[in-house]
Amino acid sequence: MSTRPIFITGIGTGVGKTIVSAILAQKLQADYWKPIQSGDLDNSDTDHVRSLVSNKISTFHPEAYRLTQPYSPHKSAALDGLYIDPEKIVLPETKNQLIIEGAGGLMVPLNEDFLMIDLIKKLNAEVILVSKNYLGSINHSLMSAGILKSNGIKLSRLIFCGEQNHDSEAIIRKYLQIESLHIPYFGELNSETVSSYAEKMTF
After folding, report:
1. What is the model's pTM?
2. Is 34 a catalytic residue?
3. 3-15 confidence digits (pLDDT tens)
4. Of the residues 17, 27, 34, 132, which is catalytic?
C-alpha cells in the first residue's frame, strides 16, 4: 500500500473514476476525498462513494469547492461567482491511506492558469488511470499516460472499467508496460457488489 495519496484520474468523463474510487476505498479501507465537485450537490460523488463503502475505517473528507453547475470546474466556478484558488486545496489531515478523485481528465482547467494535472503535482500524489473501452480510448489512454510521464508523475496502475475489449486492452498494455486490471462493472452498484469487487482485487 502506498504512503502517498492515490489520485484517481480518467481518460475522460464518465469512465468509472467514482466506481474505482469506491472499490479502492473499500479494498484498502482508505479515506476518500474529492477536492472539487461540479454540480449534483444533492447527490455528490462523495455521497455516492460513502453509500458504497461498507468498512468502518474509511473517512469521507469534505470538498474544497462545491460548485452548483455541472461543467468544467473553471466554468462552474465562474458561474457561481468564484475563483478556484489552488492554494486553498490542501490535503485533509489523516494518517490513513487517502484516495483522491479528480474531476474529468488530466487537462481539465481549474482556472485560467491551473489544470487538474497541476493539482496532482501540488498534492504529490501517484496516479491510477481509469480507462473505458470505446472508439478512441486507445489514443486517450496512451496520451494520458504520456502526459503523466512528461510531467514526472508516477502512474502506478491502469484500471479498465466496464465492457472488456481484449484487442484494445492488449495494445494499451503493450505500450504502457504497467500493472493493470479490469473491473467488469455494469449497471448500478451497491455496497455488496463493491465489497465483492474489492475482495477479488489484487492491490
Report:
1. 0.94
2. yes
3. 799 999 999 988 9
4. 34
